[in-house]
Known about the structure:
With 400 residues, chain A is an all-alpha fold. Chain A has 16 helices and no strands.
Amino acid sequence: MTTHAIRLARSAAATRRPAAPGLLHFVSRHYLLLPIGAAAAFLWANTAPESYFTFARLLAFPVNAIAMVFFFGLLAQELLEEMMPGGALHHRRRWPVPLVAAAGGTLGAAAAYTAWLKSATVPMMLGGWPIMAGIDLVFAYFIVRAIFHRHPAVSFLLLLAVASNAIGFIALAPTFLFDGSRAGGSGVLMTAAVGLAAWLRRKHVRTFWPYVLVCGALSWLALYLEGFPPALALVPIVAFMPHTRRRLGELFEDEVDATADTPRHYEHVWHYHVQIALLLFGLVNAGVLVTGYDEGTTATVLAALGKTAGILLAVAVALVLGLRLPAHLGWRELVVVALAASIGLTFSLYFAIALFPAGPLLAQIKLGALLTAAALPLAFGAAWLLRVGRFDPRRHPPRR
Amino acid sequence: MLGDNLYRHASPQVYDSAFERPYAPLLTEHVKFVAVLGNHDSPESVNYPGWNMNGQRYFSFTRGAVRFFALDTNLLDAPQLQWLEQTLKTAREPWKIAYFHHPIYSNGRRHGSDVELRVRLEPLFVRHGIQVVFAGHDHMYERLKPQKGITYFVSGAGGQLRQDGVRPSETTATAFDQEQSFLLLEVDDLAMRFRAISRRGAVIDSGTILRQPST
Lengths: 400, 215
């Protein structure tokens, strides 16, 4: 068979692949399995705690360190493609204000968190401020997307979330670097992983399997030995997979021919597996007792409010300094984006489990991270009040 | 000391006003305090000489017939659990007693049992013959009926008190939440005698725990 024939055959096979049934498709397309898993975990933990915590303890490592590799890999691939021509993040002139907003949001969140814990004299938890940088990129994206559809607010939110989470990872790095558990030899492994990925790319290898199985495994081992979160193993590898342009606004959507190139193939194959990983992540990490509510929970919720305020304040400063917002993005839209960005959920949970061992301090922050999901109705409520996006009467004039 | 030993930022002045002066009569009699950290304590408190933690978050020591295991339940990480298992395995004293801040059994209204910690600690306690466990965190006094052969005490009302802070259940042996209280213990090879005493000097609970023959 010629290469063209093989592609055609694969393409036909891809189109024959049965689509997920309606509800399942909706749930997976909107990454709802994570909140579903989180809700199930919360109920389970508060009704049969002993069985829940035994289950969660058994699955914590395989889920957090292995299954989540595919989530972060998929996320890195999606974001990388968004930076290519046609993607929402392609134009670098759009970057400065969201980056300033991310810095402001993190400062606002960390300040609120620290101030509360100091006033409540809980010095044990002060080191947890990097957790507050976490923005649930996927959840926030779907909220802003649902409100604004294709609008500059979406790419603004994406950049803001990517930058904020990057700040969180960077702030956490010293914890991993200086925790005394480094095994050594990881530099060689990581170099081998990245070098092999670069070689595969140079040889135009278009199947994702060697990238994932060989390079990903080496990278995973390197991070694990170094004490870094091994779930990030595919992040440095994805950059070497060949990429295609994408249409604006198709982030996290699985509706393209998946066979033509490696990362799209990767995305297509792993889309549903990642959903299962997220379901398990919610199930394993979101089970906290209501009685675990304490100062750390309040601090995390206040940090979410501090993040919203920090984002808006930082944008105001950026505008005073002469930076410009994208067209069609005003203060009313920014308020909605800043509220959506206060949802920590997945990333806050991930940062928290990376920083604190299981126990009461972690439980407090987890509960706070779950409570930040309350920004979902707040964002929709603000959009309705401010008449923006889908609630803008000019966009949907009332029928007579 | 079962944690939350200071509710203020730790400084020499605070140690003096909140610990050294109030406890001066005991300190001058060379009573040795050995603390664990609560969620309101500064991590640097492990270096305060008066609490005899020697810079360690978790440690073990022997007094007479008792091997004490002082744990940091704020951060119950894998190295601490590995250390605990190894130390429990090698302990040969007649009594093994653990103490830490967050109770794994409690009927306190505010916090109650920390089941996530229980899942991690209880199997080790049962497997390696811990007989008695002391915790604080809930600001009241409670002695629980033995759970899997282990007697649990919550003694968290030495400083702050939460009145009506206990919701007794079938696991409660005795509870008291109307005044501050503290616990007094005497241990020999065969028995541990305890008395819980209220702020006004009334004995609110007392009894004897016999050492399990298997331990």
